[in-house]
Amino acid sequence: MLISRGLNLLKLSCRSNKYKVSATNTRIIRLSHDNHSYRDFPPVEKGWVYAAEFFGGLMWWWVLWHLWHDYGHIIGEFPYPEPSKWTDEELGIPPDDYPEPATRKS
Questions:
Q1: Which Pfam families did the record assign (predicted)?
Q2: Chain-centre distance of CA 77, in angstroms?
Q3: Other Cβ atoms within 10 Å of 36 Cβ, number
Q4: Are 28 and 38 in contact, with CB atoms under 8 Å apart?
Q5: Residue 102 pLDDT
Q6: Chain centroid to CA 19
Q7: CA distance 74 to 66
Q8: Burial of 56 (C-beta count, 10 Å sphere; 0-12/13-18/19+)
């Protein structure tokens, strides 16, 4: 008797679960011109888009202008050494009277 009642309760719960929709699959449908779902961002006004484009362009102009005209911030502010004044020792060139290195004979 308990088994028959348990089966009926199981059938009833299975039938009621068929028509339930999980909360993660729900989508709010609005009958307006925009298609939004739950937790979507609101549409952005065109003025803010234009302002963002303007300030982004201004920022890139400022960066490129200063890279072209004030590049010392990038490469460092020091005088560039004159390579013709470097000595052979500084360049790692051995003197002329330095003995030839021993070659390996095979």
A1: NADH_B2
A2: 31
A3: 14
A4: yes
A5: 78
A6: 43
A7: 10
A8: exposed
| Six token digits for residue 93 | 């060139």
| pTM of the predicted model as reported, rounded to 2 decimal places | 0.38
Quickly list DSSP for the chain. Answer: -HHHHHHHHHHHHHHHHHT---GGG-----SSSS---TTPPPPPPHHHHHHHHHHHHHHHHHHHHHHHH-THHHH-SSPPP-GGG--HHHHTPPPTTPPPPPPPP-
CA distance 78 to 80: 6
> For the purposes of burial, counting CB atoms within 10 Å of the CB of 86, is it exposed (0-12), middle (13-18) or buried (19 or more)?
exposed
CA distance 66 to 19: 65
**Amino acid letter at 71?**
Y
Output the tens digit of pLDDT for each of the chain's 106 residues.
556 666 676 776 666 655 555 555 566 555 556 665 667 778 889 999 999 999 999 999 999 999 999 888 777 777 878 888 999 888 888 888 888 777 877 6
